[in-house]
Write a structure and sequence with these properties.
Elements lengths: L9 H13 L4 H9 L12 E3 L6 E3 L8 H8 L4
Helix pairs in contact: 1-2
């Protein structure tokens, strides 16, 4: 793991240490969590089934329906 170092004022260092202490984390853990927050979007669980005729595995995950109006709006700028 790489080590990063940077300069802060005494006041800034105190603020960071207090924030880390409030979260029950080390300063390093706190700064990593702030700089790289966990992803808020979860990957969709894919649903695969065997096709009854071909026997191939196909993705049957439900997707949101797209209306004709939405398609026309998306293609409105297309030449």
């Amino acid at each position: 793991m790489q080590v990063l170092s940077f300069k802060v004022t005494d006041e800034q260092a105190g603020v960071v240490r207090n924030l880390a202490r409030r979260k029950n984390r080390t300063v390093s853990e706190y700064l990593r969590a702030v700089a790289f927050p966990p992803s808020t979007t979860r990957r969709k669980r894919r649903i695969n089934e065997k096709h009854p005729v071909s026997g191939l595995i196909v993705d049957v995950t439900p997707e949101p329906e797209i209306t004709t109006e939405q398609i026309k709006a998306m293609l409105a700028d297309y030449p």
